[in-house]
What does this fold into?
Amino acid sequence: MDYLLTEEQLMLKDMVSKYAAEKIAPVASENERNHRYPAEIINELSELGMLGIYFPDEYGGSGMDFVSYTIAIEEISRHCASTGVIISAHTSLVCDPIFRFGTEEQKQKYLPDLLSGNKIGSFTLTEAGAGSDAGATQTTAKLVDDKWVLNGAKLFATNGKEAETFVLLASTDLSQKTRGISAFIVEKDTPGLSIGKLEKKLGIRCSSTAEIILEDVTIPKENMLGELNKGFKVAMVTLDGGRLGIASQALGIAKASIEDAVKYAKERIQFGRPIADLQAIQWMIADMKTEDDAAKLLVWSAATMKDKGLVYSTESAIAKLKASEVASFCANKCVQIHGGYGYTEDFNAERYLRDAKITEIYEGTSEVQRLVIARAMLK
Ligand code: COS
It folds into this structure.
């Protein structure tokens, strides 16, 4: 399907794929087992311009398109899905809303450090009682002496431990639910902001997932991102892009599952011949490839819509729904083809399965994606 890509996109794909195979693959499993944030890899990917792929040069971005971004996330996630989500959350959920909704001053102040990878970003929407129902946000922001004072606790913030810049959603009018939420840019060293519980997770263990506690966190009035009480839309538009980042991460996991399954099927001898000769295995591999190609077309199509400036909320939900379910399907088959060995840490298959599951949950569960798609169909 690479025939759909431009020369520039193909060059990027080649560069990232070689980097990931040489530098990420050898350390991915050990890092994951030790819950180790891949700081060195993130630094090197920053130097390669991978933390600001689709933003203009004037703010320090790499000036490529969004399709290129999806390709890079896929190639990185092919070897380490944790690294994929670290970059995706930073790019899609922090750099993107600042670029799209920020004032010129905010862009000048925050984007160069974020796009160059000098600083890592974290997006904090979720709370204990506001998961799929993101509008139930209870964290508050009150204007006191012309400054915003934030109080509450956010949950499951990807990059929460390493981030220096947060894009944070808080209620500026609790009675208005989704129409009373505003977005803010908050710096890590602001007094009153602390990192709470760090989650212990089934997979993507190199990326931190943190609770962010806000106790009278006082920030300048100009740190509101976008308009007062329009933050829910900032979050939803941001998640439209973020969901394509996760869909691309899912494509990476699916690709890893297919490549490892094919390799193992050719090597593993049972009944006197490679198991690749068995139709049961062949059909699994055929189904994996077919599903993966379908998912990739959906992701690239929605990414192209974003590049063209079209509204792509429904297409993003469709792509994320399909790609995440395909990642789980492929990872599950990869374990199955590996048999008993697939259930051990001697092979990467078990990691792919653990990593795949979260793509069906974060940045909107598969049920939320179906809700978004159904609402668009039935309105
Ligand atoms: N783009 C622009 N605006 C959007 C939008 C989008 N993709 N989706 C919703 N909106 C707008 C709606 O048009 C509506 O606007 P008005 O106030 O002008 O009527 C407003 O946002 C509220 O939308 P809606 O009524 O659909 O809100 P709901 O409370 O029903 O929530 C879902 C909708 C469930 C889709 C939303 O809460 C959601 O995406 N939940 C999952 C959150 C998530 O992904 N969390 C992951 C954590 S982030 S890492």
